[in-house]
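Something for you to look into today, if you have time. Could you write out one complete protein record for me, on any chain you like? Leave the record below and I will have a look.
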Amino acid sequence: HAAQLLDDFKITQKIRLIGVGTTGFSTVTASVQIGLFDHKEKPNDNWEKVDEALDSISQKFGKDVIGRASIKD
């Protein structure tokens, strides 16, 4: 569906990055907010896997080919 939405959208400027979000993949109904400065919490294993994937891609193709997204003004 995301590709169809992009096809239907009239693009008038150059695009550098397109993101896709998802919802509804979890059966958990309550949200848990993680403390910003609470270092006692166990790191999320999913983010460790993302970091490993980023490291692997960087080693194979160079350090400047991939990175985490950021918002710039």
